[in-house]
Design goal:
The chain is an alpha+beta fold. The protein is built from 15 helices and 30 strands. The longest helix has 18 residues.
Amino acid sequence: MIRVVYRDPESQREVQADFEATHIRAGREGSNELVLPYMEVSRYHAEFLVGEHAVTLTDRSTNGTYVNGERVFGKQILNAGDRVGIGNVVLTVYTEAQLQQAWDEYNRQQAAAQGQYPAEYYDQEAVVPAHGGDPGHAAGYEADRYGADHYQQDAHHQGGATDDHGNALVVHQQTHGDMLPVPARDVDAVNYYGGESAPVDLKRRVHRRLLQYMDLKTLDMAKVAEEELRDRARNLLYDIIAELEADLDPTIDRDLLVKEVLDEALGLGPLEDFLDDDSITEIMVVNKDQLYVERNGRIEFTGKTFTSHEAVLAVIERIITPLGRRIDESSPLVDARLKDGSRVNAIIPPLAIKGPCITIRKFGKKSLRMVDLVRFGSVNEQIAGFLEKCVLGHKNIIISGGTGSGKTTLLNCLSSFIPNSERIITIEDAAELRLPQDHVVSLETRPANLEGKGEYAIRELVKNSLRMRPDRIVVGECRGGEALDMLQAMNTGHDGSLTTGHANSPRDMIARLETMVLMAGMDLPIKAIREQIASAIHVIVQQSRFSDGTRRVTHVTECVGMDDDGRLHLEDIFKFQQRGIDPDGHVVGEIVLTGYIPSFIPDLINSGLIADGNFL
């Protein structure tokens, strides 16, 4: 048997574990015998082979394992008191013989405290004998010496004793109930179970006890229904709180504590409440202590926290694992989605310096329609009616805008105008679109696997969609070489397709399209690219987010064709004119008609979508 003692990097509390096995793996994964759930620890970091007289350490990590500050290469036999560095954890491993020696020393200390040995046998400056045994105080153990008053405060929790000078004999509870001392240099002076805990410390303690009683990492989730799992964990949490009742502040809400720990253990932690709040549109986790939300277009600090960086990482893995995606040191960023379609971006160290970072673009429980955007003031009835006719008239539309300006929401609304009789193929990095039509094929990109194979980007999916007999192709966002394939699709019988792009104006969107086509790797002259754009794109809708948090359509622009000088000719049909800002900080303005009549109006008339020449 061996005992492993280490200090928790987050709480700085001392932790110890006993193992009867002769082969012990240590790492971040739950399948290890010694689970160290910290980001700095590799999934399978190191192995301990327990022999009759020694413990052999083998490094299995890429970042290295260290003994007394020196990196281990291959295998190394551990000596008594060696410090083993695994990620951000420093372990000390004790064999059964060393523990027995400590136990014998403890018995001698107890006997000394009861006056069973002559006083001169003891060094008055130490608890352990100064004579007999190994030189340097028996096995080299030194007692932690805090004052008698301090010790009496902690003794109730530690189950310890004092010597005849009032000095503490530092002992710790084993899982089977025996009291056994460990070297005091491995013991935190702060009591692990004693004193009044801060809320985060308390949640961390309860969470770790839950993990001890119910191994959530290795539990076969396929065999246990989600509700059953939550019920089992909830019952265990109430039992754990009952065990800690004597140490808990009576003002702490027990039910709220159970909910918060349960959310972190099985859900998305403090993010759960934000996801249920319909007034929140964006959730931003800067690190475990900094959580922000966007409410009504403005960013707010929430004051909520995770218990540790590892808890944030666990939430990320809980989101991406069902989608077959991964995040680790070799692939430290990922795009994913929640069950409700909300878009998730996560990035972890070493790229994220402050700790794991999460950004969630929420999707409302109810899909918005164009009538909702009219009610919000994002568009007026004239623009809504005109864009509906453009979609029904098979005009190719690109929605342009900055990050968080509402492009995807508008794309979803425009896509809802597509007749139910048509076959629609949607292509996205993370599936967000929720179309009401029956005949919708939804495609989603896939990143490369551990071997760097199996990646399917938007460009491959756009190419493949042309073989799937689509009436319409809807691409969530064009941001690379797939723009060329999208333009070719629009030019080859797939009119009425829609996509979005990042740009600050319709003219900037055209320039971005030219750049994205060049990213496809085709050595095309700029004139040929512009001709492709001119024949493919009919309407550009510019969406913007204003300083007051509102999102509005600022331009509806036609791509008319090529000018004589070789530039693309754009004409605004609708334009937002800002009049100023009112005393409450709200942007004041209105959408106006420019007077330009789109060149494709005859097509809409011939299709029966416009009567008597009035395109509105």
